[in-house]
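hey so u asked for the seq, here:
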Amino acid sequence: MTHPSEDRAQTVSPARAAEVAEYLAAHRDDVIAALAGWVRLRSVSGLPERRADLIRSANWLAGALREVGFPTAEVLSADGSPTVYAEWCTRPEAPTVLVYSHHDVRPAKDEIWEQTPPFDPALRDGRLFGRGASDAKGQIIAHLWGLRAHLQRSGTPELNLKVLVEGEEEIGSPHLAAFLDEHRDRFTGTDLIMVSDTMLWSAEHPAVCHGVRGSVQADLEIYGPGHDIHSGAVAGATVNPLSEMCRLLARLHDDDGRVAVPGFYDSVVELSDTERRQLRALPYDDEDWRQRSHTRTVVGEPGYTVPERIYARPVAEVLSMASGDPEGPSRGAIPAVATASITVRTVPDQRVDQVAEQLRRWVADQISDAVDYQLSIPEETGQNPYVTPSGHPALTALTEAMRAGFGDEVGHMRNAGAAPAALLSGALDAPVIFFGTGLPEDNWHDTDESIRIDMLLKGAATLTHLWEHPSLHP
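ran it, structure tokens below
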């Protein structure tokens, strides 16, 4: 790849931008129909009863890739999980780009969705509702149609494209590393990786994503009595594991909201002055953020803006806690077991193994001797944070492509969630860039997930312009 400086980056001609936008607008109904058809497949990961749906989803995508023109598009197994691999490599002199995403989705309960059942997609007010519409099937659809628009000009891709779409991202990609190792020959010669599983800052103010946080998942069980015991018989004379869980988790943060685990911040790299200026240039106000993110209040670590907190600062969150009789009438019993799920979002240079050990030591030091406990931290599902190398030419190309695709200036950001970017970069010895079509208000992992169709089409246009950008070609 060539390495032009930022001021030499070439813009997309207005005529080409208009041509691509017109092509995609003419196929708007086809884009919606494709995404809706795919969303109907209940490709929920981690549930054995949905394995057939995952396989159908993978086969749907492999067929769609072949329909676009990929000579090779097949479904492979990652320890039984259906993973789609495709390649279109006909230009030995051109760079090779690997596009990564996932086709698995989070579980969804029909009875609590208000717009439509989660796997019965519905188009309303410019949004397509359905589980996976934004995270991340819509992002893959943008790639399919971005490539279609590109092929209208070239007939074949102007660079070499490979596609990897896994079926286990929502459960931490536990078998991705082994899959990459087993199929190493398929990925030889990868020059650049694009991860498409990210959000934009806002519909009105898109921004180039430079990195993602990492993640560490921990599950804690605390054991009290040998079985649930009538509280009137033993209350005041036995330990309550739920009370101990509450006491322990209350110590996870200090009074300022910082994580109170010793050593937690020791490896954290502070933002550079340049990136801090970029994040503070994003248009932000509390009311707009509360509305778009569906949050009640704005809180967080003192001394940092909201974009800095969610993109560049580590956090620990309790995602669930269960014990006793959470539903129905109480039995009036002290529970035998209390459970909690904790997730840690990490930033450079925190590592999965380092944070896992810090959590283990903290729980061991803090928990009462009156209870037994088990702390499970599956390190194979953890993800390390990743930031695209500063000044990489692909960032220049992506910035120019987004300007053309969205028809406006773009900002700079990271993403608050995690992705296996560090794993992919390390395994394939290639840098990673990020592009997605999601928005905070798309309700990822929540009820009534949806995607804005105009974001989908602008995202597809961006990808067309990216594949055609001169800085990606020798």
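The first strand starts at residue 72 and ends at 78. The two ends are 5 Å apart (CA to CA).
lmk if thats what u needed
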